[in-house]
Specification:
single chain, alpha/beta, five-stranded mixed sheet, 5 strands, globular, EC 3.5.4.33
Length: 146
């Protein structure tokens, strides 16, 4: 069985692609049975769409791949804590597991939800996986734009 760190590294590769494209560097992968079935990275600028977050793109790809609207047997790995919009999509997707790297105090869901989880009650949540790498990518991106 492959580790959470293995899949987070794959999400970090996608976040680097977003960075190179001038997008906020967030990457996401959807995994079932140790196999990546979908990938996404932020494409807000490229698509001129504020909903084109890495998680949303990865989820849409996973739904299409499986021909299903729920993902109870899947895990999502995303480099940064999901925003409230993405947390809602993750809830409705009924994902079995959600893993993220860096916290996002400014735009993450936790800023608004406080002590209540916005995710499906059966979802396994793991945070802080390769958080330093994900945070450094974000910091580097915003430093370069100031």
């Amino acid at each position: 069985m492959l580790s959470d760190e293995h899949f987070m590294k794959q999400a970090l590769v996608l976040a680097s692609q977003a960075y190179d494209a001038g997008e906020v560097p967030v990457g996401a992968v959807v995994v079932i049975n140790d196999r990546i079935i979908a990938r996404g990275y932020n494409q807000v600028e490229q698509l001129n769409d504020p909903t084109a977050h890495a998680e949303m793109i990865a989820l849409t790809s996973a739904f299409s791949f499986l021909g299903a609207k729920y993902l109870p047997d899947a895990a999502l790995y995303v480099t940064v804590e999901p925003c409230l919009m993405c947390a809602g999509a993750l809830y409705w997707s009924k994902l079995g597991k959600i893993v993220w790297g860096a916290s996002d105090e400014k735009n993450g869901f936790a800023r608004l939800t406080r002590d209540q989880s916005p995710f499906h009650p059966k979802a396994i949540i793991r945070t802080g996986v390769l958080a330093e790498e994900a945070a450094e990518l974000m910091k580097s991106f915003f430093r370069a734009r100031r």
